[in-house]
Amino acid sequence: MARRHRLIRVAPSAVWDVLADGHRYAEWVVGTAQSEPVRGQWPCKDAAIRFEVRLGPVRLTNETVVRRCEEGAVLELEAHAGVLGTARIAIELRPWGEHCLVIVDEHPLQGAGGTLHNVGFDALIQLRHRTMLARLARLCENPAGDDTPHPAPARTAAPGAQGVGHA
Asked: Which residues of 40-60 are buried (b: 16+ CB within 10 A; e: fewer)?
């Protein structure tokens, strides 16, 4: 089972807004070239998104189905990848101060992915998750698409504090 987390420096509602937009799925899911909702109201239970994976000149069309949704907090998906089988992808959003801790947990369910699942496979999924969470953070933290670094808020010393200290 591959599990990874990332602190995204926006409120959980801002992260949920991106996850809840079925047309933006391909913007944050690694390996996906384009996506479109095809069934139901994304991200409600049993809604589905069709997505395309491009491997050179080959284009594969697959589908992801919502298996569980707790609006603003939990999204569990089942990704169908043809002969590779299916995978469960659970995304949990936790408030962390004024930010959002995003936890992704993925494992294969059926097909070749389930049969061949091992520690090496989990390591590849971890790499994929690192990139996926970085993309999600970029979309949420810079909604206008600018990559301009935003200055950190100014720090003020507590009354009576002497010098500069680090915790």
From this structure: eebbeeebbbbbebeeeeeee
Q: Tell me: the pLDDT tens digits for 74-89?
A: 999 999 987 778 989 9
Sheet with strand 48-55: strands edge to edge: 2-8, 99-110, 86-96, 74-80, 58-70, 48-55, 34-39
* CB 15 within 8 Å of CB 100: yes
As a whole number of angstroms, the distance between CA 159 and CA 62 comes to 59
Structure tokens at 135: 């993309």
pLDDT tens-digit readout, 117-164: 667 666 777 777 798 999 999 999 997 765 544 443 443 344 444 444
